[in-house]
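Deliverable D2.4 — example input (structure tokens):
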């Protein structure tokens, strides 16, 4: 890849990809307003299939914007505050 593309560019793109769907934006906003939440709670709120919700959560988790803790049979999700702060900074750099 071109040497002009830095690790920061790659991280910015990864965060942007994770934020590229309105449901994922909603999930991130929802989680940022509370300590944590169980995936079942989200499926009660969002009118989408559980499998679709799971895919959205997976995308956010792989980008590092949220983290999940499994306590069978539930998964608790929380915002990864450090990575969310980094995403804010990196995306702000584009628009300033």
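Example output (designed residues):
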């Amino acid at each position: 890849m071109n040497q002009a593309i830095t690790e920061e560019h790659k991280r910015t793109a990864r965060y942007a990809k994770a934020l590229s769907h309105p449901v994922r934006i909603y999930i991130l906003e929802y989680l940022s307003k509370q300590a944590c939440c169980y995936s079942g709670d989200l499926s009660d709120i969002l009118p989408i299939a559980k499998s679709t919700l799971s895919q959205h959560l997976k995308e956010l988790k792989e980008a590092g914007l949220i983290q999940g803790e499994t306590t069978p049979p539930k998964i608790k999700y929380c915002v990864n505050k450090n990575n969310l702060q980094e995403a804010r900074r990196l995306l702000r750099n584009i628009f300033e």
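The chain has a mean pLDDT of 93.
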